[in-house]
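Q: Got a minute? One more chain.
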Amino acid sequence: MKIKFCLVFAFAITVSIVQSQKLNNAKLDSLFKALNDKNLFMGSISISKNGNQIYSNSIGKADIANNISLSANTKFRIGSTTKIFTSALVLKAVELKKISLDQTINSFFPTIVNSQKITIGNLLNHRSGIHELLAADEFANGYTEAKSQEEMISIISKFPSDFEPDSKADYSNSNYYLLTLILEKTYKKTYSELLQEQIIKPLKLKNTYFGGKISIQNNECYSYYFSDKWEKDSEGDMSVPLGAGAIVSTPSDLTFFIEKLFQGKIISSESLKMMTQIQDKYGMGIFALPFYNKNGFVHRGQIDSFSSLLSYFPNEKLAIAIVTNGAIYDKKKILIAALSNYFNKPYTINFEAYEPVKEDLEMITGIYKNHENQEVITISLNNKRLYANFNNQSLFLLEPTSKNKFENIWEGNKFDFQLKNELIFEANGKQIKFYKF
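A: Always. Here it is, folded:
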């Protein structure tokens, strides 16, 4: 997969909210105006409370070459946020007794390592040990070419297991690709048909569907990465992600979908309880999203240079969806700003970033190992952006906070390269030393 370069920038505003659990729309407008003026973000947001939209905004271009602006109805590829839909479809199939969570997958995929041990439930909560399919050599330069299901199963089957099934959790798109095929084999229908029949038509979603080649005429948008200027990205072929990341939607459709999901309009309350049961940070197609003393859920996605997130706070009946087709400024910071606004929490939005020197970054790239547990972190560089790869499984973008100090904004993990050939990795307040070799 291609990794894109983001310029640094300098600008700052402070958000201070005076109303509790009520949006100050003017403050959010000022944030999006600043993002637009500084050319840091292109995308849309929708915030809904009790099923009613209380805020929306769209900035940037759907098609830069033809000067077509984004609007509230512009449709975006949502990437892995698709997995919430797929999880709901699988749990619905379980309710109908077409499949079961403890059913092993060997009858579907006998060539996959440990298939006789891996259950459908393991796929749902990423406890299968099946290696990430996008790590395959076939996708080293992206996935713009179509792949047959036979080709995809062959690619997934060639990897050894990353860990014993159900012993831990680690994110892998392979899990949800396989769940897609299980659904199709079980119903003898395509994923697109099942999505239409079980979610889109019942909920009357107007702008949500299984994606294909991007069509500006159909009010879709291209995605862009920034390299001195916005550059149009290539298009991934949707035969590769399928139910792991192939849905197209709008923020308002997404907030409506997740509201209905939590209202029991798609799956039962018992199934929803299983979906939202968090183990080792993973639910079934969803993750926990704590915010101060509030408890929400979220999934985020990325495909090409599109990015998305969908979050819901059940007690407050608050839904927030953010989609982007080009971003320098991280969408999680926008989510935090919106939540801080709504829950009356002070929050400073700082657009001033530390600019690392490329030579300094090159010095800290390499492979680091922890001598006690033998875990490995590979630090790589792509166009002045630093990435961490844990045990050759999960790739995370690291944002610079100061010289030789970086942070993974989604996980909150910190990386300190101050000591020569040493990495101090901090997670959940615990520090672990890794040594370069």
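A: Residues 358-436 form a domain with the Lipocalin fold (CATH 2.40.128.50).
Q: Perfect, thanks.
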